[in-house]
Amino acid sequence: MFGYIVITASACYGYQDQGVMIAAANQDLWQGGAICGKYFQVTCTGALNQGVPHPCTSTPTVNVMITDFCPPPGCKGSLDLSHEAFSTIADPRAGGVKISYQQYTI
User: Fold this and answer.
1) How many CB atoms are closer than 10 A to CB 74?
2) CB contact at 8 A, 78 and 28
3) pLDDT of 4 above 70
4) Are 23 and 40 in contact (CB under 8 A)?
5) Is there a contact between 16 and 42 (Cβ–Cβ < 8 Å)?
6) For range 65-84, the mean pLDDT
7) How big is the CA angle at 98 (ends 44 and 106), to the nearest 5 degrees?
8) Strand partners, 63
9) pLDDT band per the 50, 70, 90 thresholds, residue 6
10) Interatomic CA distance for residues 66 and 25, integer angstroms
11) pTM score of the predicted model
12) CA-to-CA dists, residue 12 to 17, 44, 85, 93, 105, angstroms
């Protein structure tokens, strides 16, 4: 069986590859795209639902770069992490988790 991924352009970088530890920012953080390229440390702090009561992994913190915009109403939180970044901090079956985050500079 073969699968495929549909690649779509990011709001910040178009089709330029920025790696897999990336995230999209919600409207409150977006500020007209000023957040593009900024780095955030994101930590899983707990469950959002009863389906996976303890979703955080043993390495619940990841560093991501903002590469895209997560528009309403689809955006359910402040940051929408890539699958790779989310899987680092939480069980993917959780779908969403509570997080804390802070911006940092390299």
Assistant:
1) 9
2) yes
3) no
4) yes
5) no
6) 92
7) 50
8) 41
9) low
10) 7
11) 0.90
12) 11, 25, 18, 28, 18
